[in-house]
Amino acid sequence: MSSAHRCQAPVGFALVALLATAAVACAPPARGPEGGQVRFDAAMVAPVPTADGGIDSGLAPALSCRGVARSCLLRASELSCTEGDGCRWESDCEGVPYPCSLQSSRGACNDHLGCYWRSSGSGSCSGSPRSCRLFGERFSCSSQDGCRWSEGCAGTSTPCESFALELSCNQQPGCTWR
What residues contact 132, with CB distance under 8 A and at least 6 apart? Predict the structure, then answer.
C-alpha cells in the first residue's frame, strides 16, 4: 500500500507550533501504513495576515495588566484615593498660628489656644500659641487663627505592569487585565 496519511492543520497556526504538536495532532491512523510514517505538507498551512500587517500565529496573546495607573494627586476623595495600591489619604493641620500679641480682646485671646489674657494695666494677650501641627482634627485646627485643615491623596500609584493577578490589576484605577 502506498497511501500516506496527510495531516491538515488549522489555518493560522505557526509552523513552529504545528511541528511541535505534529506527533499528537497528526498521528497516523491506528491501521496506518507500515512503519507509521506521517507525511507533512507545509504548503497546506498559509499564514494569516492581521489588521496591523503582522502574521497571526493562531495563539492567543498572554494576558497581563495594562494601562496607566491614575496618579494619586488626581484622586479627589478619600474613597478614590484608597482604591488600588500606592496611594494614601492624608489630613493635617497646617499653617502658622497668629501670635498671641495680635489678639486684641480678652475673648479672642482666650479662644486662641496657648494664649492668656493679662489683666494688669489696660490688659494684653500673652503666651505662645499652640502649633498648628498639634491639632489632629478639622474643627480644633480651624478654630486656631492662622491654622487651616488640609487633606488630600498622596503617594505614588503602583504601575499597572507590577500586577501579576487579574483581581489586583482591575482594582487599580486606570489598569485593566487584557
Answer: 93, 94, 95, 96, 97, 141, 144, 146, 147, 148
Query: What is the C-alpha separation between 178 and 162, in angstroms, rounded?
Result: 14
Residue 176: per-residue pLDDT: 96
State how beta strands 124-127 and 65-67 pair: unpaired
Question: What gap in Å lies between CA 135 and CA 97, rounded to an integer?
Answer: 11
For 148-157, the pLDDT digits (tens) are 999 999 999 9
First to last CA, the chain: 51
User: How many Cβ atoms from other residues are within 10 Å of residue 26's Cβ?
Assistant: 17
Q: How far is it, in rounded angstroms, from Cα 147 to Cα 26? A: 79
